[in-house]
């Protein structure tokens, strides 16, 4: 049995997204510790063209689960958390790339009542693809912008039993089934687990530091469009 299940999702209809997701998958396939299962949940309308299917990679099309509803991150993360049976799970973001020793480091810090988190660096997808290898990117990483608090999808690792006991994100896992979230619960799960852990004295947060374990790849052109819309409000 795998030590940890990694859970990631994406809507992969755009060619640009497919390229970015390919970088994410390559970084996971090249981990030094391969004792994990990656559950990759595809929320898009078109199937993603995967170049290779390692034995520790589980690809899931979600159309049948969504039943015509718009997908919501909290629902997808809860759904993915129920699919495996490893003792620990870790939620990832598919627009990140992860250092080769990421899984190894996370597993070393896990315990029954611990939530493990990492910081990340930010760079544009356009800048990252000019770098020849992921290893080169991590040489560059000290000069990249720090994102001081990682969002939930970047890295939140904890005991599966504990995650299900607290009901997953927003308490929306009941009796082994996922409840679809309300509108306000669609995208606000970023700090929900962290706030829960800070309220419970027997639970502990661990921030893994010492190197850059992940780099977030944003699209420069999209950020310009978002910035323009924010200024227009």
Keywords:
single chain, 233 residues, alpha/beta, Spore Coat Polysaccharide Biosynthesis Protein SpsA, Chain A, 7-stranded mixed β-sheet, 4-stranded mixed β-sheet, 9 helices, 13 strands, globular, disordered C terminus
In terms of topology, how is this protein built?
Elements: E1 4-10, H1 15-29, E2 36-42, E3 57-61, H2 63-66, H3 73-81, E4 88-92, E5 96-98, H4 102-109, E6 114-118, E7 120-124, H5 125-128, H6 134-140, E8 145-147, E9 155-159, H7 160-165, E10 173-174, E11 177-178, H8 192-199, E12 204-208, E13 214-218, H9 220-232
Parallel strand pairs: 1-2, 1-4, 2-3, 6-12, 7-13
Antiparallel strand pairs: 4-9, 5-13, 6-9, 7-8, 10-11
Give a written overview of the molecule.
This protein is an alpha/beta fold and 233 residues long. The protein has one domain: Spore Coat Polysaccharide Biosynthesis Protein SpsA, Chain A (Alpha-Beta Complex), CATH 3.90.550. It is built from 9 helices and 13 strands. The protein has helices at 15-29, 63-66, 73-81, 102-109, 125-128, 134-140, 160-165, 192-199, 220-232; strands at 4-10, 36-42, 57-61, 88-92, 96-98, 114-118, 120-124, 145-147, 155-159, 173-174, 177-178, 204-208, 214-218. A 7-stranded mixed β-sheet has the order 3-2-1-4-9-6-12, sandwiched between helices. It has a 4-stranded mixed β-sheet with strand order 5-13-7-8. A two-stranded antiparallel ribbon has the order 10-11. β1, α1 and β2 (36-42) form a beta-alpha-beta unit. It is globular and about 45 Å long.
């Amino acid at each position: 049995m795998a030590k940890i299940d990694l859970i990631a999702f994406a809507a992969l209809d755009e060619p640009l997204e497919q390229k970015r997701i390919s970088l994410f998958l390559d970084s996971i396939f090249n981990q030094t510790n391969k004792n994990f299962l990656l559950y990759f949940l595809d929320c898009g309308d078109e199937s993603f063209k995967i170049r290779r299917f390692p034995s520790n990679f589980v690809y899931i099309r979600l159309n049948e689960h969504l039943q015509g509803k718009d997908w919501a991150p909290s629902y997808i993360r809860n759904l993915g958390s129920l699919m495996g049976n490893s003792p620990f799970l870790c939620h990832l973001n598919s627009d990140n790339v992860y250092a080769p020793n990421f899984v190894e480091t996370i597993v070393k810090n896990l315990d029954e009542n611990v939530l493990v988190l990492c910081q990340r660096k930010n760079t544009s997808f356009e800048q990252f693809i000019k770098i020849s290898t992921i290893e080169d990117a991590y040489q560059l990483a000290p000069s990249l912008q720090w994102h001081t608090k990682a969002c939930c999808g970047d890295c939140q690792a904890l005991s599966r039993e504990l995650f299900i006991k607290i009901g997953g994100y927003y308490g929306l896992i009941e009796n082994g089934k996922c409840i679809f979230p309300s509108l306000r619960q669609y995208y606000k799960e970023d700090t929900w687990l962290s706030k829960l852990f800070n309220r419970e004295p027997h639970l502990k947060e661990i921030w893994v530091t010492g190197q850059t374990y992940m780099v977030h790849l944003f699209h420069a052109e999209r950020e310009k469009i978002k910035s323009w819309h924010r200024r227009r409000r």
